[in-house]
Amino acid sequence: MAEVEPRKKILLVPENLLKKRKAYQSLKATQAKQVLLQRKEQKKGEKLKFKQLEWFLHESWWQLRDRVQLRQLEVKPHGLEVPDKHSLAFVVHIQMINRVSLLVQRTIARLGLSKIFSHVFMKVTP
Prior knowledge:
It comes from Physeter macrocephalus. GO terms for molecular function: RNA binding; structural constituent of ribosome. Residues 13-84 form the Large ribosomal subunit protein uL30 N-terminal eukaryotes domain. This is 60S ribosomal protein L7-like 1. The radius of gyration is 31 Å and the shape is elongated. It has helices at residues 15-45, 53-75, 102-110, and strands spanning 87-92, 119-124. Helix content is 50%, strand content 10%. By secondary structure, it is mainly alpha-helical. 0% of the residues are buried.
């Protein structure tokens, strides 16, 4: 005799969720099409960019410099570590440097080193 297969239970989903799902999928599909069209338009207007030979030379110098710095850190591994004990540091603002990062500017401002030759004692913690 034929074996009776157990019926799989179909989960019922409310209609409003199905409608929302369908609308969301159609919205995402149209957005994806628009993105593809925009990319195609951008590629049409792009010109080929050629790197000059000097830039390849500069990049190789930078890579060599990075490798040397990494090798030096391997030789002196504890060069960047903070001491285990609390210690005191004397920080002096010696020279104005233009075009520094925003993080550096904020740090200088928080330490109260806005003027040249202003100074502050700092507690260095591990």
